[in-house]
C-alpha cells in the first residue's frame, strides 16, 4: 500500500491491557536459579555467570519454560554462587560482580555494581507483563541513555528515540530512516550511560519490537507478539566486555577463507559464460585485484536451484577451472524456493522426503518467487538441513567455492512479502507456526549451508553469504545489507548500519558497493569503493537493468582511483585478517564505532560518519558529491595522516583534505601496522618481505602489536597450527628498543625478512644494533628510519 491510508494502518497501540507482574508471593532457590512467584506470573532468574543473568517469565502459575532459540549455543554456563538476603521489602542477591535488588511490594529488578552504583533497573511502575500472546518488559530510561546494537537498522549510530521491529523482511523500497524492519533480526541491545553499560539480549524469535524512548521519556520497552519473555541481562566492564559476553552466548565468527577478505565483483547477473570470463579478464588486464566473482540467478536453468543453464553455461566445471587458474573463486547464489515442477529432481526429492513447509492439515505452502510457484524447505528439521547441505555437492563438485543465500527471509512475491504465518514448521517434533520460525529461517538455512560445505570438504573453511538472519548468524555466514540503491544517502547510511551490526556480533558484513539498484556514477562508485576497502565484506554488486558499475565503467579517471583503493585493501589484508582473528576469539568487530575505543569521549557517542578499523586506524569516508575536504573528529592522542605522514593532535575536529583520490585515513600514534604487497588475488605470490610500519610518537613510550597468521584456508588453526608474533617498542632516554617475540610458532611463514619502517623518529640515529651487533645497513631520511632484518631477529636498538 503506497497511499496515505497507510498512516491509519500503522498507528501503534500502546494501550493494550497488560497483566502486570506486581505482587510478590514467595521465592525459592534451585541450583543456579531463583524462582519467584507473583500473582500474575512466575519469574526465573537464571545465573549463567556473575555477569549474565537470564530473566524468564511465565503467565500465572504456568511452569517457566527454559528452552532457548537456536541463537543460544552456550548451554553449559551456570553460576550457583549467588547469595540471597531476604529483607522486609526487598530480596538482595549478590554475585561476584553484581548486586540485584528485587522489589517485593511492586515487582521490579535493579542491577548494581558491588560499589553500589546503579547500572540499570526495570521501570518501577510496571516492569513485566503479558496480554494474550504478547509479552513485554519495561525498563527505566536513563536521562542521557544511548542505545547501540540491534543489528541491521537504518538511521544513526545511537538508536534512541525510535521504535524498531524484528521481522525479517525483503524490503525493496528505498531504505530511508523510517524503513524498518530490514532483512535481519538481532534483538540485542547495548544500553550506554557513561560508565554504566549493559546489554539486553531478548531471546525470542517471534515478531518483536523495541520502543527506545519514542513513547516515553521515562521508560523504554521491548515486547513480542508471541513466545515468552526471556531475556539476558549482560553486565560487563565496558561495551567490549558486553559484546564478548553476548557472543559467548550466541557464538562467534569462525575464520573465513582468507580469499573472502579480498575484493568481490557481482552483478545481477553475469551471463553467459563468455561474459563471466570477460569480466575476469578485464580485472587482470586492468591490474585491478579481484578474488571473487558472484553468479546471480541467471546461471541456473529457469531459476531452479542446484542446476545450471546448459545453454549459457555449457561447461561450468571447465569455466570454474579456467577462472581458478587465474585466481578467481566463484560464489553462486542459492534461493530457498524450489520450483514446483514434477520433472525437477529436487522437487521430487523434497516431496518424497517430506522436506517442504506445510500447513497443519498437510497441505503444502506454495509461494511465488523467481522460478514461479515454489515450495520451501523446512529448515527447522535436522533431516532437511542435512539434505539441503548435501545438495551443495552438485555445485562444489564443479568448483564453486562459496554460497550466497538470498531471499531467505523467506521472501515471497505477495502482499506480506513472506510465507503465510499459519504454516506449521516441524522443528523435529516441537511444532510451531511460521510466527515462531520466520525470523529463524535464514539462520537455519545458514546452518544447513555452512555444515553442508564443511561436510563436503572438512578441511576447507566454508564461505557463506546471507541476506536474512537472526542472532547467531555470525557462526555460519557473512551478511550483506540487501538491496540498497545508488544514492549518496545510502552510502552515508551504510556506515552506522555496519557499525551497529558489528556491535551486534556480526563482524563480517558489508553493503553493495556502488549501490544495488538505480544507476551509479563514477564519483559515487569511487567514494563507495573507498569506504568498501575497509568494510569487512567488500563486494560491488549491481541490479539488472541498471548501468554497469564495474571499477572501469565510468572512465579512466575514476578507474585509476578505484584501482588504488582496491589495491590498498590488499595492502591492509594481513591487518584485516588479524582483526578477523580477534573477532573469532572475542566477538569484537573489525569495523568499529569510535565509542568502542573512546567510551569516555562524548563526541563519539553518536558519531555516525567515521569509524575505526581495529583500535588504531580511523577512517572518514566522503559520502557527499563534489567534496574536496571533510570534517574529521580525532579523539585524544596524536594521529598521523596515512597519506602525508603529517601529525595532528586529537581531541578536536580538523578539516581534512579529501579530493576524489583521497579518503582521509589516520593512524593512531604508537601503532604498529603491517602492510603486505598488493596482489591480483590473496596469496597469489609469496610475500618476500613483510613491511612493518611503526608510527612513533614521543608521547607514546611503548606499544605493541600482535600479528596472527595461518594457512588462510584450512581448520588447522583450530588445532593450534598458526603463528603469533608480538612486536613491541620502548622509546625512552634517547633510545628506541624494538623487540620481536615469536609467541606461537606452528606455521611456516612465507617470508624471511621484515622491512621495518620507524616513522617520525625524534632522535637522529647514530648506532643501530641488531641482536647486539652493530649494523650499517639502514637508511635514515627525514625522521624515518628503514631497516631490513631477518625474521629470526629479536631485538633492534636505535641510539
Ligand atoms: C535480490 C537480492 C539481490 C539479487 C537479486 C536477484 O534482490 O537482494 O542481491 O541480485 O535478488 O537474485
Amino acid at each position: 500500500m503506497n497511499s496515505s491510508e497507510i498512516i491509519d494502518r500503522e498507528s501503534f497501540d500502546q494501550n493494550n491491557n497488560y497483566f502486570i507482574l506486581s505482587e510478590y508471593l514467595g521465592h525459592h532457590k534451585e541450583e543456579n536459579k531463583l524462582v519467584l512467584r507473583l500473582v500474575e506470573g512466575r519469574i526465573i532468574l537464571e545465573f549463567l555467570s556473575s555477569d549474565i543473568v537470564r530473566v524468564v517469565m511465565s503467565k500465572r502459575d504456568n511452569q517457566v519454560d527454559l528452552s532457548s532459540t537456536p541463537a543460544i549455543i552456550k548451554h553449559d554456563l551456570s553460576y550457583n554462587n549467588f547469595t540471597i538476603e531476604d529483607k522486609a521489602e526487598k530480596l538482595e542477591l549478590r554475585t561476584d560482580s553484581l548486586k540485584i535488588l528485587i522489589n517485593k511490594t511492586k515487582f521490579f529488578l535493579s542491577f548494581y555494581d558491588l560499589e553500589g552504583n546503579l547500572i540499570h533497573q526495570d521501570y518501577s511502575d510496571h516492569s513485566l507483563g503479558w496480554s494474550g500472546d504478547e509479552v513485554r518488559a519495561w525498563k527505566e530510561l536513563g536521562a542521557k541513555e544511548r542505545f547501540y546494537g540491534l543489528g541491521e537498522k537504518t538511521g544513526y549510530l545511537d538508536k534512541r528515540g525510535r521504535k524498531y521491529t524484528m521481522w525479517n523482511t525483503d524490503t525493496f523500497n528505498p531504505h530511508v530512516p523510517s524503513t524498518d524492519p530490514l532483512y535481519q533480526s538481532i534483538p540485542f541491545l547495548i544500553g550506554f550511560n557513561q560508565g554504566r553499560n549493559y546489554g539486553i539480549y531478548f531471546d525470542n524469535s517471534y515478531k518483536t519490537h523495541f520502543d527506545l524512548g519514542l513513547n516515553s521519556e521515562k521508560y523504554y520497552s521491548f515486547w513480542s507478539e508471541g513466545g515468552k519473555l526471556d531475556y539476558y541481562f549482560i553486565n560487563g566492564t565496558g561495551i567490549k566486555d558486553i559484546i564478548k559476553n553476548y557472543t559467548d552466548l550466541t557464538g562467534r565468527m569462525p575464520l573465513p577463507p582468507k580469499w573472502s577478505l579480498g575484493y568481490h565483483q557481482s552483478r545481477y547477473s553475469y551471463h553467459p559464460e563468455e561474459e563471466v570470463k570477460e569480466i575476469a579478464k578485464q580485472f587482470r588486464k586492468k591490474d585491478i585485484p579481484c578474488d571473487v566473482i558472484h553468479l546471480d540467478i541467471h546461471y541456473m536453468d529457469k531459476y531452479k536451484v542446484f542446476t545450471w543453464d546448459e545453454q549459457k553455461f555449457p561447461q561450468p566445471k571447465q569455466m570454474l577451472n579456467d577462472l581458478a587458474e587465474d585466481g578467481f573463486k566463484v560464489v553462486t547464489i542459492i534461493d530457498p524456493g524450489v520450483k514446483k515442477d514434477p520433472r525437477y529432481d529436487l522437487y521430487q526429492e523434497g516431496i518424497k522426503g517430506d522436506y517442504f513447509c506445510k500447513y497443519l492439515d498437510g497441505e503444502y505452502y506454495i509461494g511465488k518467487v523467481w522460478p514461479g510457484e515454489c515450495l520451501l524447505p523446512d529448515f527447522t528439521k535436522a533431516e532437511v538441513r542435512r539434505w539441503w547441505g548435501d545438495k551443495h555437492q552438485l555445485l562444489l563438485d564443479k568448483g564453486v567455492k562459496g554460497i550466497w543465500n538470498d531471499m531467505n527471509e523467506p521472501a515471497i512475491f505477495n502482499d506480506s512479502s513472506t510465507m503465510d504465518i499459519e504454516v506449521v514448521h516441524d522443528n523435529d517434533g516441537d511444532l510451531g507456526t511460521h510466527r515462531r520460525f520466520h525470523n529463524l529461517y535464514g539462520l537455519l538455512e545458514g546452518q544447513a549451508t555452512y555444515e553442508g560445505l564443511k561436510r563436503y570438504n572438512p578441511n576447507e573453511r566454508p564461505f557463506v553469504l546471507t541476506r536474512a538472519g537472526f542472532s547467531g548468524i555470525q557462526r555460519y555466514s557473512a551478511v550483506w545489507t540487501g538491496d540498497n540503491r545508488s544514492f549518496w544517502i545510502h552510502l552515508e547510511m551504510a556506515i552506522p548500519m555496519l557499525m551497529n551490526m558489528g556491535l551486534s556480533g556480526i563482524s563480517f558484513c558489508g553493503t553493495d558497493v556502488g549501490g544495488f539498484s538505480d544507476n551509479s556514477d563514477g564519483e559515487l562508485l569511487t567514494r563507495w569503493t573507498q569506504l568498501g576497502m575497509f568494510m569487512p565484506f567488500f563486494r560491488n554488486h549491481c541490479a539488472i537493468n541498471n548501468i554497469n558499475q564495474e571499477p572501469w565503467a565510468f572512465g579512466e579517471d575514476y578507474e585509476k582511483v578505484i584501482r588504488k583503493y582496491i589495491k590498498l585493501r590488499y595492502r591492509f589484508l594481513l591487518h584485516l585478517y588479524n582483526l578477523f582473528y580477534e573477532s573469532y576469539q572475542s566477538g569484537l568487530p573489525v569495523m568499529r564505532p569510535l565509542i568502542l575505543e573512546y567510551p569516555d569521549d562524548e563526541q563519539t557517542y553518536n558519531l555516525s560518519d567515521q569509524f575505526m578499523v581495529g583500535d588504531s586506524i580511523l577512517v572518514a569516508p566522503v559520502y557527499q558529491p563534489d567534496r574536496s575536504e571533510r570534517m574529521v573528529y580525532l579523539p585524544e592522542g596524536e594521529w598521523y595522516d596515512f597519506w602525508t605522514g603529517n601529525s595532528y593532535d586529537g581531541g578536536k575536529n580538523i578539516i581534512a583534505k579529501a579530493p576524489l583520490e583521497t579518503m582521509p585515513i589516520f593512524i593512531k600514534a604508537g601503532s604498529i601496522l603491517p602492510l603486505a604487497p598488493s596482489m591480483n588475488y590473496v596469496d597469489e605470490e609469496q610475500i618476500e618481505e613483510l613491511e612493518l610500519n611503526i608510527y612513533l610518537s614521543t608521547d607514546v613510550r611503548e606499544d605493541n602489536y600482535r600479528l596472527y597468521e595461518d594457512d588462510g584456508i584450512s581448520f588447522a588453526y583450530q588445532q593450534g597450527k598458526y603463528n603469533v608474533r608480538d612486536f613491541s617498542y620502548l622509546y625512552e632516554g634517547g633510545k628506541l628498543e624494538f623487540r620481536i617475540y615469536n609467541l606461537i610458532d606452528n606455521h611456516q611463514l612465507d617470508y624471511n625478512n621484515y622491512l621495518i619502517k620507524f616513522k617520525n623518529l625524534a632522535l637522529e640515529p647514530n648506532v643501530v644494533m641488531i641482536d647486539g651487533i652493530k649494523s650499517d645497513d639502514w637508511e635514515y631520511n627525514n625522521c624515518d628510519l628503514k631497516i631490513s632484518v631477518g625474521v629470526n631477529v629479536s631485538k633492534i636498538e636505535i641510539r
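The two ends are 73 Å apart (CA to CA). The CA atoms of residues 112 and 119 lie 5 Å apart.
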